[in-house]
Specification:
- The protein is built from five helices and no strands.
- The longest helix is centred in the C-terminal third of the chain and has 14 residues.
- 66% of the residues lie in helices and 0% in strands.
- By secondary structure, it is mostly helical.
Length: 79
């Protein structure tokens, strides 16, 4: 599963909005939208906070991030 699809699914399960997530992370809602659409990816610091917000282990987020990287074929996730 793509990283963005995974975090969107988890957010919806928790009945939280993109605005809720952005507020918790101290970022703009547009950043969350980009993550959920696999247009960009969070920094390491935001991954940790995202793990807390979504109440899932960080290694699970990293697994989905790695899978997305493989699917993007050589594009760097850390731009």
């Amino acid at each position: 599963m793509y990283f963005g699809t995974f975090i969107k699914k988890q957010r919806i399960i928790m009945d939280k909005s993109q605005k809720d997530m952005a507020s918790y992370l101290g970022i703009r809602r547009q950043s969350i939208s980009k993550w959920e659409n696999n247009l960009s990816f969070p920094s390491i610091e935001h991954l940790y906070e995202l793990s807390e917000f979504l109440e899932i282990p960080i290694d699970e987020l990293l697994k989905h991030l790695k899978d997305s990287k493989k699917k993007k074929k050589g594009e760097s996730l850390w731009h």
